[in-house]
Amino acid sequence: MKTGIYGGSFNPVHNGHIHLAETAVKGFGLDRLFLLPSKISPHRSSAEYAPDEDRLEMLRLACEGNDHLFVSDYEIKSDRVSYTIYTVEHFRETYPDDELFLLVGSDMLMSFDTWFRYEDILSNVTLCVVSRENGDLPALKKKAEELGKFGRVLVSDAAPTVISSTEVRKKIAKNKDFTCYLDENVVQYIRLKGLYSVRGEGDLQYNPDDKKKYLKAHLSSKRYNHSLNVAAECRKLAEKYGEDPDKAYFAGLLHDICKELPDDEQKALVLESGYTVCREELDTRSLWHGIAGAYFVKKEFGVEDIDILNSIRFHTVGRAGMSRLEEIVYMGDLISAERDYKDVDKMRKLAYTDLNAAMREAFAFSMKSVIKKGGVIPICTAEGYNFYTRLSV
Question: Does the keyword tRNA-binding apply (predicted)?
Fold first, then answer.
């Protein structure tokens, strides 16, 4: 059997990693490929690593459904530095009859002859290389030829997917959109666990004063007071759950900014936004303002914080795997001071004692209201209900 080994920090695992793994399985004819997150890398500082178990879980989520990809915790559980020779020796002992293949990225190949006991590695495995940068194949093949005197080295001609974990972490820390780089289940996990977030560094200032002037001029008195109440509720929830209170207040304040725009203007913003919008949302006028509002504050106010934008965009419909700020705005809108529906006090109490359970109840409440009115349930709302129901089991 042909067994592959693919180690790395996977911090976090991204689509480039999975592309490289799937390319190797197909291109080198592997029967299975083990992906191993390193515990302590000799090449990198561990200061920015997500916890070991989180990196393992993200890998499992990214590999889910692929019959050839497996996740190993060997290096995570090792009590010594993750030098590759130790991993190779482990797999040689575990699978003595298998043909072993070691998968590395192009950047690793170029420095491979500096690795600890690299000659021993090459005597035990076939080294497999998949390009990670456009235009680097000639250099890779030259390096492979140099290393060929120590063992077998194969280079894939497949086109690379150029993604950097470092850049993904920077986007997350600065609240830029990072969802296109990762499996959607990994995105939800990062949001749920609050990984890679940077707080308190003042990257963005959330000054609500000028926004209040705009809202007062463009909203009815009733809607403006509701916005102030939601903002105040969001601040209290943020203080309860360890989020930035100023940021939560800012997002709550702006959540209904497009609520009273004429229908044609709201729909035009929705269509212009470029956001993914399901048919049920597009056909339901009362849902346009969240989508329109997120795009409006980005376009007109220059707000680029993806967490704030998503909090506005999903404050009515919700979705699976909402960030903590999204949850806060969603609940803040539902339990603000002027709300007086039946059982609102029960919902308020739950929001401050068990936010996951409150989200489940809020989704159920929302869907019941829509069904009672003969409306349709957006896909993201149904997915959100299922998500928080599973969390609460």
Answer: no
